[in-house]
Amino acid sequence: MTDTPKRRSDSLTPADDSPSQPEKRARFEDVLANNATLKDDSAFISKSFCPENMHLVSVLSSDSRSNCLILHTRFEDSPDKDGIVILKKTPFPTDPKVLQQSKLVHKLLTSSDHSAESEVSLEPSNPTVTTFPCWEAKSILSNDVYHRLLVTAGLESLNEVDMTVIHPAEPHHFKRYTKSGRHVIQETPELYSSVIVPFLSKTPRDLSWVDNILTGKAERDRVLFTTDQIDDYGFTLVLDYRWNEKRIQEMHCLGIAHDPHLTCLRDLRSTHIPMLKRILVEGRRILSHKYSADAPTPGPIREDQIMAYFHYPPTFYRLHVHFIHVDAADDGGTRTGRAHLLDEVIRNLELDGSYYADRVLTIYLHDQSPMLEAVQQSYANSTSERIDSENVRSEDSAS
Amino acid sequence: MTDTPKRRSDSLTPADDSPSQPEKRARFEDVLANNATLKDDSAFISKSFCPENMHLVSVLSSDSRSNCLILHTRFEDSPDKDGIVILKKTPFPTDPKVLQQSKLVHKLLTSSDHSAESEVSLEPSNPTVTTFPCWEAKSILSNDVYHRLLVTAGLESLNEVDMTVIHPAEPHHFKRYTKSGRHVIQETPELYSSVIVPFLSKTPRDLSWVDNILTGKAERDRVLFTTDQIDDYGFTLVLDYRWNEKRIQEMHCLGIAHDPHLTCLRDLRSTHIPMLKRILVEGRRILSHKYSADAPTPGPIREDQIMAYFHYPPTFYRLHVHFIHVDAADDGGTRTGRAHLLDEVIRNLELDGSYYADRVLTIYLHDQSPMLEAVQQSYANSTSERIDSENVRSEDSAS
């Protein structure tokens, strides 16, 4: 019924294959969640990968913003095998009760409390709640009402670290987890037709998982809306497989166009404006209605809190619109140049029906991306052709 | 010589006043760095703000991606005063030597090492380096080569927490640190001329800090390039005050147009294309030259690693282009709809000289933003006008 494994292995990700992409993370979570068997030798695993046994070859990448560190390692017991270790600091809990249990705060007050009488009473079943661990904090600066400290002990229960070990790690693991840089490329219509389109048809991807959604063969319970299939300008609104419907700020839905000939932004013309307006207006209406204030969690979301955009280049080549919450955490997915607001796309097509056909588009391609390789090869070819023709000219003039 | 304090207090931030904006953070850092006096009563401060003395009123905001938590608190010794506590987990170090000293790994190897002979020798001056703290890690899942663990002890030296206390905290502090939501607004040219422009002229900001940069009165050592002042289409390239030139991925420079009549994207016409191309081409050339492979740190950066964009609405109303590294961490600053790539702006003006004059632009405004208030007031007025005129019509038809 579900085609998630196929989607995971087959979807095309030329635009962004950075390991920090949520999509990649979600896929790896899937591998673990779907297939994993919890082994009993927990103590053995914990011991094998402990710092005392771990040797560092290099730092593969790090992200100071999300507090993540990825290492190339070897372990004492198997010095000829490579490992990848991914460390990530866990987020703070946000439930006041959990913060109290974690010994970050002593009592829970209500906003109007100024006396001890109205404190939330401590759970009698937890008599140790008032025993606080040793607190060590260095005062860095203190100025007027502003005080900065560096806490070095006392918050251990909030400082768990999520650790993933890939061992033994193969070259393809290293490729995925090594920080790769982006290139800003100006994609002319000629580059698109002479390099990108041939590249895509040489490396076709199985998009049957999309058809399965559109025909109701898969993910029926995740489809929120679909127009009459006969209509070429129809679309289907489906929950993105990354979203579990738990937190509205993480909302992610896809509006997939039914017309199989529409692959990406480059295919859009003024004739598609009615379809695009329908996706935008209906998408916002359906989502704000489904996740309204009256509905149970995770809402509410208002229409003016919904961003709708295309990726260019897209992750897979069937025209689809992303719907997310405007207060979503920023990642590469909403970056200007990669994300094109549907509102703006419609206005651009109203201004010029061949805006996206004739247009130079600024795109980002990763070092590791096969698409970048194709683009750079075409640059090299055109340079050598130019040199050849210049040589011919200079030979002509010399003769 | 420097006008940072004035810029800090005067600059207009209608588009994004979220506390997680790097700009806001940098400003607060400035307050501390420029004016703070380190008090000797470090132990007293540390003790006053310890968890045992801290009571929680509410969680003001949290960011699971950047591992930040902001609390409304009161302290045992002053129960009638409010406090704001900002906790942030520190990023992992990335220097292999520091990782070794922090007891995350045992030995440092080179990539070709498969034997103990070629290990980087441990510093003899640090005999305790091989003593590892107690390691506790729970094996969550183990499947094939993938192993996931939750580390609960043993990495204490990597788990410092940065803690900022504002105490006593005033209402304006709460306004700044309370999570505020965004609204997606379609800014028509009429809304711009009838609401935004009057709003801006009613709340003028002192932009003398910009003039000081352009005339060489301030930040001379941070100006990278300036064109002849006589030229109306000139510009000045200056290091953004947030960037300390340490890490090239965090590069942030501003190209400020000399023409004081140019305030923002809305003012651009086809006559400005030569100036815009000059800013784009010269900006990329100068930066990639200054931070080249031959230059000392923090380079290198190639021209095709440089993103150039406008914000709309801008943070201050003098036309300026942001130059950043394409591999910069994503924050709200590069989000589509807020950031407009200079490459695309030039192409849009080439297509239609009044593209940005006649255009509906999708913008984001925060709950707390006075500009949003002005926009919503205008919506309310036009609705009541419409109702009034409808009443007149129905009275007419009834009479």
From TrEMBL, chains A, B:
Primary localisation category: nucleus
InterPro entries xref list: DcpS/DCS2, HIT-like_sf, Scavenger_mRNA_decap_enz_N
Signal peptide annotation: none
Keyword Hydrolase appears in the UniProt entry: yes
GO molecular function annotation: 5'-(N(7)-methyl 5'-triphosphoguanosine)-[mRNA] diphosphatase activity; RNA 7-methylguanosine cap binding
Any one Gene Ontology BP term: mRNA processing
EC number: 3.6.1.59
The keyword Ribonucleoprotein belongs to this UniProt entry's keyword annotation: no
Cellular component aspect of the GO annotation: nucleus; P-body
Compartments, as annotated in UniProt: Nucleus
Catalysis: reaction(s): a 5'-end (N(7)-methyl 5'-triphosphoguanosine)-ribonucleoside in mRNA + H2O = N(7)-methyl-GMP + a 5'-end diphospho-ribonucleoside in mRNA + 2 H(+)
Pfam families according to UniProt: DcpS, DcpS_C
Top class in the EC scheme: hydrolase
Keywords: Hydrolase, mRNA processing, Nucleus
Source domain of life: Eukaryota
Family: Belongs to the HIT family.
PANTHER family linked to this entry: HISTIDINE TRIAD HIT PROTEIN MEMBER (PTHR12978), M7GPPPX DIPHOSPHATASE (PTHR12978:SF0)
Known role: Decapping scavenger enzyme that catalyzes the cleavage of a residual cap structure following the degradation of mRNAs by the 3'->5' exosome-mediated mRNA decay pathway.
UniProt protein name: m7GpppX diphosphatase
Record lineage: Eukaryota, Metazoa, Spiralia, Lophotrochozoa, Platyhelminthes
